[in-house]
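How a chain folds remains the central question behind the approach discussed here. The record that follows shows the chain in one-letter code together with its fold in token form:
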Amino acid sequence: MMFARAAHRTFRGALAGLTLGALCLPAVAAPTVSEVHDLKYGAILFEFYQQNYFEALVEYAWAEDQGGVQNHGTYPELLKGGISLSYGLDTQAEEIFSRVAQGNLTEEVRNRAWFYLGKMQYLRGDTSVAARNLSNIQGPLPEAVDAEYRYLAALVNVKLGYFSAGEAVADSIDDDSPFAPYFYFNLAIAYGAQENSGRAIAALEKVIDLEDGSEELRRLGDRARMALSFLYAGRDDQANAGLQLSRISSTGAYSNRGLLGASWMAINEGAFPDALGPLAVLTTRSIALPEVQEAILLQPHVYEQMGLNGRAARGFIDADHRFREALDWLQKARQSLDHADVMELFVQNLDKVLGESDWFGAAPSVSVNHLSPFLVELMSDHSFQSVLKDLRDLYAIRNNLENWQARRDDFDVILAARAGSIDGESHRQGLSRMARQVAESRKRYQVLSGRMSSLPEDVQERLKWQLEDLAFDITRGENMLDALSGAHAISEGDQFSQAVVRMMAQVDDQMVRTEGLITRLEDVMRTLVATELDIHQQRLEQYQVEAQLAKVRILDRSLQDLEVIEEDGQSPESAAAPADQAEGGDHAI
């Protein structure tokens, strides 16, 4: 029967979901710097600590072009390797780390390089090579990466089957370290794969014990409870399985699976009324979620098993209607894929999409709201996340190139100034006139800003973006004026002009290349999204057919009962009275 198969899928899906996002490590560790001896390195670190990694690489490239960073050893190069790794540039990162690790350096620097190299190889899946490089670490690591190193070493041991060694390393991790609960979670996955449920349960209980009240570890704890319920159910320990399900947050990332699992547990035990509570909560949530889709069909089935045929029939009719609406919604989601900017809009608003849908609520308010609710499960897929990350980086690069292209006119004005005149006036007179205009604009901006502070907040909100645009234009004018003021000091004007033309041509070439990469990745993303929508459509169509068949089955049974009553000489009204009383006045349809 469909419902029995669904119950198996629910618990099987709980275990399968455990392996997703198991290694949640930052790709770049902050370098330890007590004093900056080179301003070029200070500029790199400034962008790094602002998490502007692309700008940090730009500053690093400029520093290399200016002779490199002085008096900071290999730390700048390690930083570049870490940022490259975060951008998925494995080959470049591996080359940097290998060169640094094999150089004649201090123990601390060499250990850092071996650590980053081993981490990169573990993430790539080369566990044996990662273990060999991690074993090259001699002596203590800096505090900034020591806990992560122990976590990684423990994971590598477990991955290679050395469970005791892995746990021994994990015991040296402080309980307040953010890596400790993730290790025991991964340890439980490994024991589960070996069908060692006893040790898997112990590891998952350790995860729960390490919860510190933070949202991140609360979600991890819910994942552990969901897995525990599966493991206990596999051992026919329904009491503990139900206890773990009852402890899953009713509004967290795993609340839908927990509620559906609790419903199925009650159904399998024949406690049908107990299944109605969790189902009632689930059916109020977004139908784009698979658990909600299943609950909408499961609720009238429970009524039918309780003998409440009238409620069951109405429930199946309502399910048919809701599935039809969901399929229409799904069609609108497909149509949104044809919009030119939907992929960029989705990627740029990803945090808002995830925050508002929250994995269990309604659709977000951004204009991709038809699309995003159907992608909750896809968002946890490694391939999809990889495409999202690459697209986000490419969009940032394209925006950077567009900013440079937008300055083409500024360069033309500067070059014209170097030629000696602007709009027929002398160079000096032109600069003086422009300076007065910019200064007057700055004064007017300050007056407007002062007036705006006295306006109501809603009016301020409407005018704020206009003032921000004005401030940007004024600042741009001031910068251009500074450039014009210094233009006469630059020698060899023809060479400068040629350099500008050459670099703007490079910007155009890179824009073409970037657009091509974006187009290719957007096609990949559209394919992944379309496949996910196909899965939803097939499931919704199947559920709709089952709802329609169940509705017909109940109606047919009701007609047969009426025929039997009429053959026995009873009136349908008198025969229906006991049924009405049994169902609380609920009439069969």
Observations:
- DSSP finds 25 helices and two strands in the chain.
